[in-house]
Design brief:
By secondary structure, the protein is of the alpha+beta class. It contains 7 helices and 5 strands, in the order H-E-H-E-H-H-E-H-H-E-H-E. It has a single domain, classed as NADH Oxidase, CATH 3.40.109.10.
Length: 199
């Protein structure tokens, strides 16, 4: 029986232990991404969210770029933990790169100057909603994922390697694959401290 939205949201977790198998096809994964990108809301209906989808060798190439970039800035004696982490992400079956098209966001800043300072913030919010929508649906299909942030130190090389448009600003990376271990226990702050009802 398919999972409902609340169940998928509740069971979505950061899954670091993944492998390159998938219970669904690449076409089904792309359908989730396409549908979410089309329908997730954005301020002023800007639709500035962008996604680059990497499978197979391109997925491995991306994590190779991350590995070598970090190798240049982390001391050799401290690099082992980082190397293990990056290899764990590369062990998955794909990676999603989440971008904002700054040409769209800047265009709105120029057109609606009273809100100029807010448009980059709203673009981040829209992108976060897209990340969550895709993440929850991947979980519902039996895939594990995490959100990573190796930008901006990888941005230039990634743009060159994958021919990413110059106006796209990298926001987050999502490696995914079949889980090979359970997530750690999650602690919750009492909901009464986080939600108030004002009457």
């Amino acid at each position: 029986m398919p999972k409902g939205f609340k169940e998928a949201m509740e069971e979505r977790r950061s899954i670091y232990a993944i492998c390159d198998e998938s219970p669904v096809t690449a076409e089904e994964i792309l359908d989730i991404i396409d549908h979410s990108t089309k329908h997730v809301p954005s301020a002023f209906n800007s639709q500035s969210q962008r996604v680059a989808v990497l499978f197979g060798e391109r997925h491995l190439e991306f994590w190779g770029i991350v590995m070598e970039t970090l190798r240049k800035i982390i001391l050799a004696e401290d690099f082992r933990a980082t190397e293990k982490k990056i290899k764990g992400f590369a062990a998955g079956c794909g990676t999603l790169l989440f971008y904002d098209d700054t040409s769209v966001t800047q265009g709105l800043m120029d057109r609606f100057t009273p809100y100029k300072e807010s448009f980059p913030i709203w673009a981040e919010q829209s992108n976060g909603m897209l990340q969550f929508a895709i993440w929850a649906q991947l979980e519902a299909e039996g895939l594990g994922a995490t959100i990573q942030h190796y930008n901006p130190i990888i941005d230039k090389e990634v743009k060159e390697a994958f021919n990413i448009p110059s106006s796209w600003r990298l926001i987050a990376q999502m490696p995914f694959g079949s889980p090979t271990a359970e997530p750690t226990q999650k602690e919750f702050v009492p909901i009464e401290k986080r939600v108030i009802v004002i009457e």
